[in-house]
Write a structure and sequence with these properties.
The protein has one helix at residues 15-39, and strands at 43-45, 49-50, 54-58, 61-64, 68-70, 83-87, 93-96, 100-102, 107-110, 114-117, 122-123, 128-130, 132-136, 147-151, 154-156, 161-162, 167-168, 173-174, 179-180, 185-186, 194-197, 202-206. The protein is mainly beta.
């Protein structure tokens, strides 16, 4: 006799629900891609691979050189995310290099200068890159301080990794192979093969570049004699 305690109640698997959910996600994603494509007013050169909508506005131009991926696989919590690129002035320019991946919810704004992102760059979710830098002048009694805005180009060189929710201000140059920790605010230049973190971001450690690693033909010399 089978006891009731040994019987395991299992809910019937309903694959049609999963199929409807996937169909709904696919339909909503493509509808949002088409909607933001119609709303975009910026001249775009190149065809990026879109996993999230691209909202490109402004009077400047943006260029994608090679294969650029915008957004990651769209889970349910990222259905409302998008990549926002704005080139406000006629001289504003945004360029993103080959094999660069930009995660969900990022914003790149070039007001009057330029934002140049190199190749093989990895940018986490929620990153904000601006070419502007605000300066608050010293106030006088009875007169509030004036706020001045300076537009300076931003350069992110090749093989750079930027963590999630990082803010990069105008006039910053991030050299090749640098690493920026999550939730950092970058206000100054970052040297090659370094790790920066904090608000404002400061030097934490160094990254060993790939050129220091042993070459393939020298691997046998590193093995023990009994190998």
């Amino acid at each position: 006799m089978h006891s009731k305690t040994n019987e395991v109640s299992k809910k019937p698997v309903r694959p049609w629900r999963q199929s409807l959910l996937r169909l709904g996600c696919w339909g909503s994603r493509h509808c949002r891609l088409l909607w933001y494509r119609l709303r975009s007013s910026l001249s775009v050169h190149g065809v990026p691979e879109l996993h999230q909508p691209l909202h490109a506005v402004g009077r400047g131009r943006v260029t994608f050189t090679g294969r650029v991926t915008l957004g990651s696989a769209p889970p349910l919590r990222w259905l409302n995310a998008k990549t926002y690129i704005e080139a406000r002035g006629h001289r504003a320019y945004v360029c993103i290099g080959h094999n660069t991946h930009i995660d969900n919810g990022c914003a790149v704004v070039a007001e009057q200068a330029s934002v140049l992102i190199g190749s093989n760059v990895r940018i986490g979710s929620g990153v904000q890159i601006f070419d502007t830098r605000h300066t608050l002048l010293r106030s006088q009694p009875g007169r509030p301080g004036a706020l001045t805005v300076h537009c300076q180009p931003v350069v992110v060189e090749d093989d750079v990794v930027i963590g999630a929710h990082v803010r990069i201000c105008g006039g910053v140059t991030i050299r090749r192979g640098a690493r920026i920790a999550s939730h950092s605010v970058v206000m100054g230049d970052v040297p090659e093969h370094t790790v920066f973190a904090g608000r404002p971001a400061q030097l934490v450690s160094h990254v060993r570049p790939r050129s220091w690693l042993p070459r393939p033909h020298a691997r046998h010399a590193l093995r023990p004699r009994w190998a």
